[in-house]
């Protein structure tokens, strides 16, 4: 890998919050394209947090400097395409501070307070090809270059043995961690992964074949818990299909179609997700009973479950997280759409009207999950619609400038890696995750069927305790 230049620190503002937290807001400047630094720059935003020490005897200058140079633990968020919550609201913060780290929450390029990806910033790049080329700079390979550049900046005054930092990657953040281990292992002291063992060896098609299987199981669980929703979901779908123009306007400018309605299963992979979907189905059905239409309140609640229009990186680059540089590797080419159409429970993707007419009323309608489809770029909202042409080019890309993983480097890995892997993970297939774990030298994995994919948030204390137990316990 080419050497990375340290990021340029633009601004640093420190704040002390109630609860003894010392938070510093940081802005950095990094190359837009690390392979071509002359091509312009992007801004990155992060918050570092450490304990605000208030000892009885004031700290000396050297003691204070030592506190400011605590080892970093960097949280790598899921997604792709989402920023970080405030440190005081994040479950990792106090766990990590109590173990002697300071924590950095860095918004990936294109997310949060970092230089954003939105319609204006993408369309400003020029035509559809230029827009697509720009979007391709927001994958994990660029993210780890940003991380390494920020590490070099923040630890430049550290002793050499303290310069490497730790990372904790949730979901897509685990994918980023594996890319980091592949390309800049010298920058890492240790890596913690929760639900983030990426299917390194697999194509997008293979990934979706596996995740659709798990999705069928989650649909079955939904209808076992709420059997009355077999009829209710079909009734809602038939009403939506029969609406004038086969579309119902959504508050932010999209349209509620049957395919978009049936993407609500995205929530099924999280703790409480089945209940959330039922609650929304009940709300829509109640509106229909009372008003023979859907209220704005219900439609806004529906939109909140399909957030792609406000987070376009997720929609545009979701399948690209599985693309490799390998010669002859296929383009993703809307893999989730193609794979789903070929499976009977999801064949509504091809023609929802014909599907509703040809299937018996007693047959449950299956919701899709963590999949992005071409119709998201026409139905989910106006922001995505304006970027559809660029998204089509990204989906058709067969050869990428840089691969995401180095399997040989992972096989000879020397960085300690600790992972929690979920047997009932709807988003990261367990068997494919196990295949990746077998690839990474020295990894320690806790496999469990106690939790779902979002456990790092909904069961945070248990998950982080498990990770640190993996690190602290010795088998021999």
Structure explained in plain terms:
Keywords: Hydrolase. By secondary structure, the chain is α/β, with parallel strands linked by helices. It folds into two domains: 8-201 and 403-472, Rossmann fold, CATH 3.40.50.1820; 204-396, no CATH class. It has helices at 61-68, 91-97, 119-123, 128-135, 140-154, 172-183, 204-225, 229-242, 258-261, 273-291, 296-305, 312-317, 335-341, 352-358, 376-379, 382-385, 388-396, 407-411, 430-439, 455-458, 460-472; strands at residues 8-17, 21-31, 41-51, 72-76, 102-106, 165-170, 188-194, 248-249, 255-256, 417-422, 444-448. The protein has a nine-stranded mixed β-sheet with strand order 1-2-3-5-4-6-7-10-11, with helices on both faces. The protein has a two-stranded antiparallel sheet with strand order 8-9. The protein is globular, with a radius of gyration of 23 Å. It starts with 7 loop residues before the first strand and ends with a helix.
Which structural traits does this protein have?
476 residues, alpha/beta, Rossmann fold, nine-stranded mixed β-sheet, 21 helices, 11 strands, 41% helix
Total DSSP E strands: 11
* Total DSSP helices: 21
CATH superfamily of the largest domain: Alpha/Beta hydrolase fold, catalytic domain
- Helix percent band: 40-55%
Low-confidence parts: none
The CATH topology assignment of the largest domain is Rossmann fold
**What is the overall pLDDT average?**
93
Distance between the termini: 36 Å
Major beta-sheet overview: 9 strands, mixed
SS content category: alpha/beta
- What is the global morphology? globular
How much beta, percentage-wise? 5-15%
How many distinct domains?
2
CATH top-level class of the largest domain: Alpha Beta
Main sheet: strand order? 1-2-3-5-4-6-7-10-11
């Amino acid at each position: 890998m080419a050497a990375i230049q340290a990021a340029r620190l633009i601004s640093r503002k420190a704040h002390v919050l109630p609860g003894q937290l010392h938070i510093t807001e940081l802005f950095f400047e990094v190359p837009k394209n690390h392979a071509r630094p002359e091509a312009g720059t992007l801004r990155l935003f992060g918050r570092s947090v450490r304990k605000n020490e208030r000892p009885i005897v004031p700290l000396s200058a050297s003691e204070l400097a030592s506190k400011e140079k605590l080892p970093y633990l960097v949280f790598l968020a899921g997604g792709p395409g989402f920023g970080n919550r405030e440190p005081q609201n994040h479950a990792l913060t106090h766990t990590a501070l109590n173990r002697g780290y300071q924590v950095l929450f860095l918004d990936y390029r294109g997310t949060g307070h970092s230089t954003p990806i939105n319609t204006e910033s993408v369309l400003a790049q020029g035509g559809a090809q230029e827009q697509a080329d720009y979007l391709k700079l927001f994958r994990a390979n660029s993210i780890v270059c940003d991380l390494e550049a920020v590490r070099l900046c923040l630890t430049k005054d550290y002793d050499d043995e303290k310069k490497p930092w730790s990372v904790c990657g949730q979901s897509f953040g685990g994918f980023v961690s594996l890319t980091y281990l592949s390309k800049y292992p010298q920058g890492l002291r240790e890596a913690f992964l929760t639900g983030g063992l990426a299917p390194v060896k697999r194509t997008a098609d293979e990934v979706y074949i596996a995740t659709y299987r798990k999705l069928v199981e989650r649909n079955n669980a939904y209808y076992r818990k709420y059997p009355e929703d077999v009829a209710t979901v079909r009734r809602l779908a038939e009403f939506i299909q029969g609406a004038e123009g086969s579309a119902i306007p959504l508050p932010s400018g999209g349209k509620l179609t049957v395919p978009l309605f049936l993407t609500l299963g995205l929530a099924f992979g999280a703790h409480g997700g089945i209940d959330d979907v039922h609650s929304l189905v009940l709300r829509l059905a109640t509106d229909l009973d009372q008003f023979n239409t859907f209220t704005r309140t219900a439609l806004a609640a529906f939109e909140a479950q399909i957030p792609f229009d406000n987070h376009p990186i997720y929609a545009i680059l979701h399948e690209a997280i599985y693309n490799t540089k390998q010669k002859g590797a296929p383009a993703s080419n809307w893999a989730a759409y193609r794979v789903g159409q070929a499976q009977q429970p999801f064949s509504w993707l091809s023609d929802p009207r014909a599907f509703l007419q040809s299937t018996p009323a007693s047959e449950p309608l299956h919701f899709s999950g963590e999949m992005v489809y071409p119709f998201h770029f026409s139905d989910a909202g106006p922001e995505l619609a304006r970027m559809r042409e660029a998204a089509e080019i990204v989906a058709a890309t067969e050869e990428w400038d840089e691969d995401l993983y180095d399997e040989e480097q992972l096989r000879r890995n020397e960085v300690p890696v600790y992972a929690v892997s979920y047997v009932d993970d709807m988003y990261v297939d367990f068997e494919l995750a196990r295949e990746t774990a077998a690839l990474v030298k020295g990894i320690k994995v806790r496999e469990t069927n106690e939790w779902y994919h979002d456990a790092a948030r909904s069961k945070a204390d248990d998950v982080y305790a498990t990770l640190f137990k993996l690190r602290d316990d010795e088998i021999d």
